[in-house]
Structure formats: structure tokens, C-alpha cells
Design goal:
400 residues; alpha/beta; Aspartate Aminotransferase, domain 1; Aspartate Aminotransferase, domain 2; 2 domains; 3-stranded antiparallel sheet
Length: 400
């Protein structure tokens, strides 16, 4: 007797969670492992956000909310889009969910028909293809190599669109690459999409505030206002405000799409935790100085890792434009032998070797659709990153 639905047969668990769990399992045996598999800030949630949650709980804000979120939070989100992105959305154009991942899940559940295609840009966030497959769609992978800055070009986009294309996924800054698009680059993609009016755009902008080298963030919908009626702008408080565990994501888009997503939410989780919504409201409306402080720390960590990887023979790392990951090229390690005589056949083998021999947890590039690479999170302290780089250097140096 099988308890598992057939639709799960092609779905893989989150690769970053798998890597983190493997690190925890080794730690449980007494092995000192540095876990760089999961991407979440190591900063505590700012005090004023925690205080707002406490006050909300004390005030009795502990009941169900509307599936779309509280009116106050949706108004604050609409104001955030106006203030920071130059986008005009009303409260009915906004929805709140348990993290940006659930926003994406709800959107796909509400729109995908069997066989509909979603264009994913490799390297992509590990959950994108699995959610598309789980909800009856077909992922179409477009490889965006380091030579393109890990960015989609208009030519690649045009070649990938078919009559079955339902969604184009954008992620900027990108996880795992850190790639960022300029306004001109987004406009060039918009010109292609203008010729294909049935294609929807999901712009995942969760790392919006984590930009380096003085770059300016431009939302896809702001760069291509003529496409706003078929764009879903996804964001949340997890990364910029160090609130990963609070699980609050949000999105804005065409009212009919948002309404359909709210129907999905009403029949799944009902709503987001009311206290977490109060915290998210405080994050968006309160002091923003910590956002800049976090960003500066992430940039310093980026610089440390880029400089460290440059000193390790056989590895390469173009400086990421944003986010807090390093997508490290390891092609020169493929085919080399470990001290135990095992040949490293691919980047999955490299990541496994770094975990068991170097005691550093990473995620192989195959999980992101583009090999040979491995991803480490740089969202941890400089002392930890320095030690991790030393361990990786020693492990690479031990290869034959």
C-alpha cells in the first residue's frame, strides 16, 4: 500500500534544507561542521519589530485575519511599493502569505493548467521547478551562464517562449548568483514580452535591499509599466529585516490574480499569523536604519569571500551584485581524486567532499540547474566565513 500521491514522485525536497540537515546530522555525531547551506541573516530581528508583536498579542490581536492580510498591513505594503519602487497599487492588489514561497505557490496553484510552461533562469532558486511540477506545470530551463552575468538576454528569452508559456520567473538579486538587472536590461526583456501578450511575469524581489557597489534597485514592473497588468511582484520581510522565522511574504499584482490567490489561501492556511503581521507592519513603517546596516555587513562579507575564493586554486567566483550567496565555480575540481581515491564526478560530489572532508556544508549547483558550481551562504559572521574558507582551501589542496 502506498501512502504517497504519484504527483510527488518527481518532486525533490529543498536542496538547501537537505544540506543543512546533513550538516546538523554530522554535528550530532560530534563533528565540527560549518553550515553554509541555508540562507538567512544571522542578525536578530530589530527590537521595535519584536515589541510591536508583543503589543499586538497583549492587545488581543490573536484572531484570524482576512486571507489577504490585515487592512493595515496591506495598506503599508501598497505604500512601500509607492515609496520605494514608484508603483501604484491599491489594497485589493496586495496579498500576504506565509513567506514569499507560499506567495509563489498560491500564484501557481491559481493559474497553472496541466502542461503550462514556466520559464526558469538557471541558476534558479531550488523551489521554483519543484513547485511548477507539483502544480501541473512544466519547467523550461534557460541556462544563463557566468558569461552573461547569470542574466537572461532578450535572445534567450525569445527562443524559450512557446504557445504554452504561462510564466516567466525573474529573481533579482538572484539566488544563488546575486545577479541584478539594470533598468535598460529589464526594458529589453519587456520589449520581447510585449510581443507575447499571454505570458505572465513573476518577479521575485525578496533580496531587493541587499545590493552592492552602489547599485540601484529597479523593480520589473517599474521598468516595464506597460506590463504591470500581467506582472506579479513578490517580496517579503524575511531577508531585509532579519525575519525569516516570522514567515511573512507579500505580493502585488492584477486584482483578479490576487483574488484568485486569496481563494487558494482561504482553503489552505486561512491567513498569516496575526501577530507576525503586526511585526511585518512595524518593519515596513518603522525605522529603516538597520536595513542599511545589514546591507553594509553583507557587502563586507561578500568582499571577504570573493577575495578568499580568489586565493583557492581551482575555484572561481564572479563578485555577486547582491543577495548573500557565493555561487562558486568548481569545474577545475571535476575529475580530481580525494585522499580516499574517489574521483569527483560532478558538483554534487564536490559538495559532499567539502562536507565530509572540509567540514563545510554547501549546496551543489545541480540543484540550481547550472553546473559545475556550489553555493555557500555568506549571511553569517566574518570569523565563521574566514574559517570556512580556510577549510575549503585545505580540502581543495588535499585533492590529487
Amino acid at each position: 500500500m502506498s501512502y504517497v500521491a504519484s504527483r510527488l514522485s518527481a518532486i525533490r525536497p529543498s536542496a538547501s534544507m537537505v544540506a543543512s540537515q546533513a550538516a546538523k546530522a554530522l554535528r550530532a555525531t560530534g563533528v565540527d561542521v560549518i553550515d553554509l547551506g541555508l540562507g538567512e541573516p544571522d542578525f536578530p530581528t530589530p527590537d521595535h519589530i519584536i515589541d510591536a508583536a508583543f503589543r499586538a498579542a497583549r492587545a488581543g490581536e490573536t484572531l484570524y485575519t482576512a486571507p489577504a492580510g490585515t487592512p493595515a498591513l496591506r495598506a503599508a505594503i501598497a505604500e512601500k511599493f509607492r515609496r520605494e519602487n514608484g508603483l501604484s497599487f491599491g489594497p485589493d492588489d496586495v496579498t500576504v502569505a506565509n513567506g514569499a514561497k507560499q506567495i509563489i505557490f498560491n500564484a501557481l496553484m491559481a493559474t497553472l493548467e496541466p502542461g503550462d510552461e514556466a520559464i526558469l533562469l538557471a541558476p534558479y532558486f531550488v523551489s521554483y521547478p519543484e513547485m511548477v511540477k507539483l502544480l501541473g506545470g512544466t519547467p523550461v530551463t534557460v541556462e544563463c551562464p557566468a558569461e552573461t552575468g547569470f542574466r537572461l538576454t532578450p535572445e534567450l528569452l525569445e527562443a524559450a517562449i512557446t504557445p504554452r508559456t504561462k510564466w516567466l520567473f525573474l529573481n533579482m538579486p538572484g539566488n544563488p548568483s546575486g545577479a541584478v538587472y539594470s533598468r535598460a536590461q529589464l526594458e529589453a526583456l519587456g520589449a520581447v514580452l510585449a510581443r507575447h501578450p499571454s505570458v505572465l511575469v513573476l518577479s521575485d524581489e525578496i533580496y531587493e535591499h541587499i545590493l552592492f557597489d552602489g547599485r540601484e534597485f529597479v523593480s520589473f514592473a517599474a521598468a516595464c509599466p506597460e506590463l504591470v497588468e500581467r506582472s506579479l511582484v513578490v517580496n517579503g520581510v524575511s531577508k531585509s529585516y532579519a525575519m525569516t522565522g516570522w514567515r511573512v511574504g507579500y505580493a502585488a499584482g492584477p486584482a483578479p490574480l490576487i483574488k484568485a490567490m486569496n481563494v487558494v489561501q482561504s482553503q489552505s492556511v486561512t491567513s498569516v499569523c496575526s501577530i507576525a503581521q503586526a511585526a511585518a507592519l512595524a518593519a515596513l513603517e518603522g525605522p529603516q536604519d538597520h536595513v542599511a546596516r545589514f546591507r553594509a555587513a553583507f557587502e563586507a562579507r561578500r568582499d571577504l569571500v570573493v577575495a578568499g575564493v580568489a586565493k583557492i586554486g581551482g575555484l572561481s567566483l564572479p563578485a555577486p551584485d547582491g543577495a548573500f550567496y557565493a555561487y562558486i565555480g568548481c569545474g577545475a575540481l571535476i575529475g580530481r581524486k580525494t585522499p580516499q581515491g574517489t574521483v569527483l564526478a560532478d558538483d554534487a560530489a564536490v559538495a559532499d567532499y567539502l562536507l565530509k572532508h572540509g567540514r563545510v556544508s554547501s549546496v551543489p549547483g545541480v540543484a540550481y540547474g547550472l553546473s559545475p558550481y556550489f553555493r555557500i551562504s555568506t549571511a553569517t559572521g566574518e570569523e565563521t566565513l574566514t574559517e570556512a574558507l580556510a577549510r575549503i582551501d585545505a580540502a581543495v589542496g588535499a585533492l590529487e
